Amino acid sequence: MPLPWGGILPIQMYALFILTGIVIATIMTSRRLTKRGAEPGIVLDVVLWAVPLGIIGARLYHVLTHPDDYFAGQELWRIIAIWEGGNAIYGSLIGGAVGVIIACRLTGLRFWSFADALAPGLLVAQAIGRLGNWFNAELYGWPTDLPWGLEIPSDNPAWPQGLAEGTLFHPTFLYEIVWNLVGVAVLLGLERFFRLRWGMMFGAYLIWYGAGRAVFETIRVDPSEMFLGIRSNVWASFAAIIIGLVIILVQRRRHPGIEPSVYRPGREWRPADAEVDSDDTESDSDSLDEGVEGENAPGEPAATSSSRSASA
């Protein structure tokens, strides 16, 4: 749904919510990383890689899981028409993970440390992004007579045939919003009591999100590719749960101790590093002055310089 003041290039509400979610997730991740010893602002170096590749991954996943919309006699250029909608969270996770791996190689951060710091913010970003589905009147579920049922225009492309106008539907995106926000509290609680590190926090995120998405996806009525009678995103959710469990089990076995640093060995950043240059300059100047004074001071014993060396 474009805003009326968008002019030649309409501003999509869905895009605004996505961008808002990215900003908030970036702030949350930065604070969490900084508390664990990372250089302030280094998260931006990762975002510059993760966000573009996440968007590309989201689009490719959507296109590949909806081939009839793009390859069945359609104009192929519409594959890149991202402004018309069509992005997949699981695709963004895959593409974003590739971006994080590249950025962590460049910055020296541990991939799993960054993933752990990102997990709560990722759920918040996904919850905010789902608000855009309300403006687009999309991603709704079966008909319902519940008080919070969603009213959808009957000319909506996903409107089920044979239903009377005014039928209400399950707001599956709202269910996912609530699930994700509850998940933030659950993950933070697990992290506090079990000291989840080495990627185990991210594994818990995959399990939580995958479990909820698997349920909400089954009641959606919008078209989707089916495999063995199950929607493709449900299969992806099962995969997320399995991957999350594997990450936790493997990492718990490989790394039973406390994570020493969010950086790889030899790439650590220390707060004192920012002051080394200025401190060294002042120290060199002071040492030079002291040395000159020592040479000129009458009666000063030669042992003074050696005692300084010993104390250093």
From TrEMBL:
**Has the keyword tRNA-binding been applied to this entry?**
no
Composition bias, Low complexity? 302-312
Q: Where is the composition biased (Acidic residues)?
A: 274-293
Q: Where in the cell is it found?
A: Cell membrane
List, in alphabetical order, the Gene Ontology terms for molecular function in this entry.
Answer: phosphatidylglycerol-prolipoprotein diacylglyceryl transferase activity
Stretches the record annotates as Disordered: 264-312
Under the heading HAMAP family, the entry gives: Lgt
Name listed for the protein in its UniProt record: Phosphatidylglycerol--prolipoprotein diacylglyceryl transferase
Organism, by scientific name, is: Agromyces indicus
